[in-house]
């Protein structure tokens, strides 16, 4: 954390979040941390709300998520091991309640690449692949990220005990590939957002197509409110 510039974690969150938040109607985002000791008793958690509110983990806008993230960093002690599956399963449970195409979930995971539950995470991804959700993983730091590349599934579809993911729902990118050499944070964030979000439209469409969910018709215009040619319209 620096008082002068955003950390790579905060930049990734801001870059992706500020774009996808415009596709959310209420701008309320549940935000979780994973891999920390929580005060006061030091309980280790792999799925804790950043706003410290178990009843309502929602944050108001991406700025609210950032504020909760920075505040959480001041109060928790980062601690391993690092488990992905609990958070993936948490989002999957919410997505499983929606099957009519009215909602689609995007889970953004920002990580240093260490993962301690690879088998369970693969199982969670395979199960989630039939649900209306996508997972974006942004890798921060100098790690090689082989495990994250494996989860991406672009070359080989993720599988668990012989069962393959129904769809490719994971997109992974290493943040370091997008850092502008001149130190221009805005440019770095724009490049990251472009590539991170590139697969989301097709992932959403693939879910809708396999479920034969059609787009809703556009709202009909009330003829009585439509001026005829030559008539003035009222604002």
Strand content: 15-25%
Give the tally of β-strands: 12
Work out the radius of gyration: 20 Å
- Low-pLDDT parts are none
**Please, how many helices?**
7
Cα separation of the termini: 50 Å
Q: What kind of oligomer do you see? A: single chain
Q: How would you describe the shape?
A: globular
Q: Biggest sheet: strands side by side, in what order?
A: 4-3-7
**Main beta sheet, described?**
3 strands, antiparallel
What is the N-to-C succession of helices and strands? HEEEEEEHEHEHEHEEEHH
Organism: Echinops telfairi
Protein name: Copine-9 isoform X5
Indicate the topology.
Layout: H1 8-20, E1 28-30, E2 32-33, E3 36-38, E4 43-45, E5 48-49, E6 58-60, H2 61-75, E7 77-78, H3 85-95, E8 105-111, H4 118-128, E9 133-139, H5 146-152, E10 159-160, E11 163-164, E12 170-174, H6 185-196, H7 200-210
Parallel strand pairs: 8-9, 9-12
Antiparallel strand pairs: 1-6, 2-5, 3-4, 3-7, 10-11
